[in-house]
Amino acid sequence: MSTVDRPGGRILVTGLGIVAPTGPTVEDHWQAVLAGKSGLGRITAFDPTGYPVTVAGEVAGFEARGRVPGRVVPQTDRWTHLALVATDAALADAGADPAELDEYEMAVVTSSSSGGTAFGQNEMENLYRQGPSWVGAYQSIAWFYAATTGQISIRHGMRGPCGVVCAEQAGGLDAIAQARRLLRTGSRLVVTGGTDSSLCPYGVVAQLADGRLSTLDDPARAYTPFATDAPGHVPGEGGAILVTETEEAARARGRTRSWGAVEGWAAGFDPYDDAARTEGRTEAPNRPPVLAGVIRRALADAGLAPRDVDVVFADGAGTPERDADEARALAEVFGPRGVPVTAPKSLTGRLYGGGAPLDVATALLALRDGIVPHTAGTARPDPDYALDLVVDRPRELPLRHALVVARGHGGFVSALVVGSA
Fold first, then answer.
1. Does residue 3 fall inside a structural domain?
2. Do residue 343 and residue 249 come from a single domain?
């Protein structure tokens, strides 16, 4: 059964909200991406002197007060503030008023990687410096991975199925896939996507364990996916929130415009992810092509062949071993240099639970305008990767379908196909 033939028709993205290092709105982000304007810089959330990582992607000038209900601000973490603002923007963009819809037919599924790290650090500091009586009651919920989903649900009266997916970068695609599943089983509108924010001392130190963070202090060189001298990735905050609906439900409320459609998805697990290898396990001599298999299943789910994909938004891990793995998988599915590939996250850093939703939003913008954004900062792609990596400047092309690839710490793998409106 094709996507169009399913009950309710295509699964549409009718609203987008972006809060990212590249900009606080959808169009600000898109113009920064096309211009190659980086959101990376020296960390300002805390003094990084003495830490091995000093560069990150921050949402400059973001202020929750006045944009998030006053009582909610001290009860929640910055990660949730970012999502609440992005959700308001996405619902406005979709022209959807939750008060006019059945509360049990609206759902929320977000992705999260670190939860409320900064909030948790602050409360732990209070505990150790001042004592238990100084720990706020909201510590029990503000750090929790599902806090953002819960706050969105409460704020907009969305009482249908709600949940959170915790699979680091891959979780962002899995959350969108779960939204699609809910829409096919009775929900009328699902808020999905995700944000993350772990730019505090505790959050950064926790990320150092896997050895993938870039320690370069030059923002222009700190994160260069697929480069011959890729030094690792830089952390970032922010992400994107999407409003998804079936074509039938959108039409019923008078919505005729969309950003595009969610057409296919697949997920898998790679037991030989390089995080596992650094923990002492050895790679199997005949390693199964996990990522390639996931991509093939996502295409099959969309009813597409490899030749139907016009652009790939890569995971772009930024380490030679993981970049090589991804390049091999793409070459296996599409052929050497068989499809344009881009990794615009080089402008934002890896946003973890918010990164893949931002890639999906960027892919939808690319489909809208027929432009493949370039991978800023990567001047010399490794020739051994056999990728048609778009560098130097954006590339204008007729675009119908985009593939978004995401991998998470520990072996999570996911791929999502989106189609033009």
1. no
2. no
**Would you say residue 271 lies in a domain?**
yes
260 Cβ contact list (under 8 Å, min separation 6):
12, 13, 364, 367, 368, 418, 419, 420, 421
Let me know whether 267 and 244 are in one domain: no
This prediction has a pTM of 0.95
Say if 5 falls within a structural domain. Answer: no
Exposed e or buried b per residue across 206-235, where buried means at least 16 C-beta atoms within 10 angstroms of its C-beta: ebeebebbbebeebebbbbbbbeebbbbbb
CATH number for the domain harbouring residue 251: 3.40.47.10
* 85 shares its domain with 223: yes
114 falls within a domain? yes
Same domain, 129 and 165: yes
Q: Tens-of-pLDDT digits for all 421 residues of the chain?
A: 444 446 678 999 999 999 999 999 999 999 999 999 999 999 999 999 999 999 999 999 999 999 999 999 999 999 999 999 999 999 999 999 999 999 999 999 999 998 999 999 998 898 899 999 898 888 888 999 999 999 999 999 999 999 999 999 999 999 999 999 999 999 999 999 999 999 999 999 999 988 999 999 999 999 999 999 999 999 999 999 999 999 999 999 999 999 999 999 999 999 877 554 554 444 444 555 799 999 999 999 999 999 999 999 999 999 999 999 999 999 999 999 999 999 999 999 999 999 999 999 999 999 999 999 999 999 989 999 999 999 999 999 999 999 999 999 889 999 999 999 9
Is residue 124 classed exposed, middle or buried when 0-12, 13-18 and 19+ CB atoms within 10 A define those classes? Answer: middle
335 lies in which domain range? 263-420
